[in-house]
Each structure stands twice: as structure tokens, then as C-alpha cells.
Amino acid sequence: MNLCLELVADELAHYPSHILRRNKISQRRLQMKGVGIYRRGMNFSSDICYMVSAKNVTDRFNCPNNTTLIVIGSVNDGIFERANSDILILEGEMRKEDFYDIFNEISDIFVKYQEIDHRLYEAVSKNEGFEKVVTIGQELFNNPVIIFDQNYCVMNNLDYEIPGITWSVDPWSGSKILPLDAINTIKTSPEYIHKKADDGIFFISEDYFPCNMILASVKKKLRITVAVLETQAPLMESHRILAKYFADFIHLTFNKNYIHTGHPVRFENFLKELLDNHQMEQACIDRYLLSMNWKNTDTYICMTYQTSRWDKVGVVYYNVCTNLELQFPGSFAFYYDDAIIFLVNLTQQGLERQQLIYWLSSFLTEGVFRVGISYDFFEFHTFPSYYLQTLGALEMGTKYAPDEWCYDFRDYVFYYFLHYGTSRIDGRHLCFPDIVQLYIYDTKNQTDLLHTLRVYIQCERNVALTVKNLYIHRNTLYQRLRKIEAILDADLNDEKVRLFIHLSYQFVEHLSLEPVL
Predict the structure, then answer these.
(1) Full strand arrangement of the beta sheet holding 34-37
(2) Which of 162-166, 338-342, 413-417, 473-477 has the lowest mean pLDDT?
């Protein structure tokens, strides 16, 4: 890590000193790699700071151009009037022994920051995790470091209190969040207003906040902010420069997707490969399911959550994933394509579909997310089609019921079919959902409910014609219809329901589909 003169000066703050800024180009850049001792006639480098004793700085002193100089002892500033260098003057009477002690002290400063720089790069390159980077950052500043998303939700683990700050709790992610009055205080402070259009680094004084604080933006696209709070050691001017430097490591961490929810990353990658249309053998799918203690024959449901509230790669999303999994054991949530995909194993959960949706209604906060819900499904290789159902539910739901937040594909599949037919989703996955349940019931019980329903609808619910075509007694038909309605959980008096059931039979017949799939 290269240093700037302000950073060295702040580390030497126990000496009375002042800086003469004579180099118009330097502008507080992190450019110094080390320290050397000034000798007349030597070749000077712009990335080394040179120490010189004040007794050697006379009226005839030739100050090297475009370099950094540290003068040990008091001198007349006028000597450097025409210099084109940055100069730190450590004032007072200095002995010869002091010169070498200070040289060693400055050398140690460079070693200290180079070691921190090495650890930060190592944490990123070795994928040691987001929290590790933040922990090293706290050593860098000797103060707490907080990573905020665009809504001032805390993205890192903050298991200690900050004096003077009373946190709110975000109901979805469980993350700590600055209360609204504190956010407004920051945004209306003179420092924020003055600096926010500058380099993304601004200082909030304790006159406006419970403590002094430096905020650094982490690239505009991410909309994340690094906050350094003065609770343990004084914030120095050089910390502004360090905050910008540290923000770049936070950016690297996010860019390389080193933040995970803590659950099996391999399973998450497997799901993403399926969604990206990677072909996979059934045996391979079974192995991944086994890692979750899931089975191919279990019943699943897929949900997609979309929101415009948070940044698109923020840790808050991953906190929401974790919160969902805690609320619904036997589930898996992950971030994909600017949304959260939530898979629930209904068999393992021991839940009926309607129970799950009812629980979700009490868990969701209206206005935070919109959620699209798929049909129930098994045969796990079909998961991508049911993910598309969730997107279809969101699209149709937003179009036809914009004031709602929960969209079940069952309620919108008819509209979806009118818009797109079978061009986007395989026809077998557009069938009336409980037609599959009738097929399963018939297979297990050696009954003929699936065919009975089809004939009943084709005969336009004419009982006499239906029993004639089926060669059964009228009472037998009534018994079958009661069983069919119980399995379908649908009103056969609804003409849209009947039309869609009829279309489902057409999908199976004309597209040569197996209804069980």
C-alpha cells in the first residue's frame, strides 16, 4: 500500500508539525512506497519520501522537484517558497539520535500499512468472506466500520452497540437500520450537502450525528456506503483518503460475489445451472438433491420475489434469504437475476400449498416485495419451467392486479396463455394444475376420474349425455364429480375453469404430453 504525506503526518501527530503543500500535482494521492535519507546530488524518486535534518536546510538548500520531503526540526518556511515539492516539517529541537529514531518510526508506518494492504488483498483473492474484509477495515481505522445499503440497512455483522445510536430493525431481513430521523440528519448536514457531489467522501461532524463519521460511496452502480465512526480513536484528515482506498476493496468483494448466505454454495450453483439451461443427467440431479435430503419425487413449489427497494447485489438480499429459510425449514433461497428465488419442499415441510401461502401472507410486508408463485411440481429437472411460471405470474399479476403483491400462477395462467400461448412455457406446465392430481389419484386407486371429467366437460355438464357416453349409472357420476371437485378444489360452474380444463386436455392430446409431467 502506498501512503500520502497526510497519513504519515497523522501517524506522527505526537510531534508538533505542519505541511507545506508546494507540489500542485500530488493532490494527496497514495503514492509513497517508502522512506529514504536525503543526500545532496542523489537521484530522487517521486514515490519515496526523503528525510533531512533541519540543520542541513539552509538558504542554499536545493529542494528536489516533484518529491516529498520530511524535515526533522524547525526551519524557516520561506526557504521552500519556490519549491515544487510537498514538505512535512516536524518542529522543535531535534538531536542526532532523534533523527534516526524518527526514521525507524516512519519505516514502521510503511510496514504497518503494507501488511494491512497485503491482508486485504489476500482476503479478497482467497475468498475469505465479506466479514473478514470489514474486520481488517476496522483495524485500518481503529474504529467501527459499517457497510450501509442505499436505505441505510447495515450489511455487515454488527454485534455491538454504537454509543448514541438507537437502531431500528428491518422486518424482512432482520438487519439493523438507521432510524429515519438519523438518515434525514445526515442528508441535511452541511458537510453532506457540500461534499456529496464531490469524490463520494464526506465528513459528518458530531454536531449533526452522535459521533464524527466519514462516509465513502462504493461505486455509484452498487449504491453502497462505507461508514467509519469515531468511537475509539480520533478521525484524522488522512482517514478520508483511507476510506476511499478501503471502499475499493468492498467493491472488489461485491463484484466477485464473495458473499453467500452460508448454505451450500454448490447446491446454489446447481440450481443456477439448471436455470441457465445446462443439460444435466438425472443421476447428477439426484446427488444434488440428496445433499439437501430432498428427493426427486418430493413435491416442490417455487416463488420469485422482486423489489425495487434495495440495491441489486446487497447483502440485505442474502439476509432475506436466510430469514426465509429460518421461517420455512425444508426450503432454499438464493439471489438470481435481480430477484430472490425461494424453493420450498412441501413434502419435507409437511405443508399443503394453501397453508404455505397463508403463512406467507403474515410474513410478507405489503409494498416491500411482489411475489410470483408457481404450481406444485415434482420431477426436479422441470424446475426451470416452474421458475418461468413465477415470472409469468408476476408479469400478469402486475398487469391485471397492480395493487396486489402476491400472484399465484393458478390465478393468472389463463391470461398468460391468452398472451403467449405455449411459446414461452412448455404446454405440459400450462395444464390446469390439479389435472395432474387426478392422474395420480387414478393411477394409485385404479379409478377413471380424469376421463370422467373430460367427458363431463365435453358434454357441457349434461348429466344424461355424460352417463350415456360413460356407460355408468347417474349416481356413480355424482359420486365421481364430488370426488373430482374435492381433488381439484375448483368450481366447475365457472366457465373460465371449464375452458381451461378443456384446453389442458388439448395440450396433453395434441402435444403428445404426459399429464404427470
Answers:
(1) 17-21, 86-90, 68-72, 48-53, 34-37
(2) 413-417
The whole-number pLDDT of residue 262 equals 41
Q: How many angstroms separate the Cα of 338 from the Cα of each of 172, 224, 304, 439?
A: 17, 16, 10, 37
Answer whether 331's CB lies under 8 Å from 342's CB.
Answer: yes
Please measure the distance between the N-terminal and C-terminal CA atoms of the chain and give it in whole angstroms.
59
- pLDDT, tens digit, 9 for 90 and up, residues 230-274: 999 999 988 988 999 999 888 888 765 534 444 455 788 899 999
DSSP code string of 289-315:
HHHTT--TTS-EEEEEEE-SSS-TT-H
Question: 41 — phi, psi (to 5°)?
Answer: 85, -5
Q: What does DSSP assign to residue 387?
A: H
Please, are residues 428 and 513 in contact by the beta-carbon 8 Å criterion? yes
Task: Please answer whether residues 79 and 57 qualify as being in contact, where contact means their C-beta atoms are separated by less than 8 angstroms.
Answer: yes
Rg (CA), the chain: 34
Q: How many degrees, rounded to 5, is the angle at CA 61 between CA 56 and CA 64?
A: 110
- Nearest alpha-carbon partner for 56 in 34, 36, 24, 79: 79
> Which stretches of 73-206 are assigned E, i.e. beta strand?
86-90, 145-148, 168-169, 176-177, 201-204
pTM exceeds cut of 0.70: no
Q: Is residue 405 a contact partner of residue 360, using CB atoms and an 8 Å limit? A: no
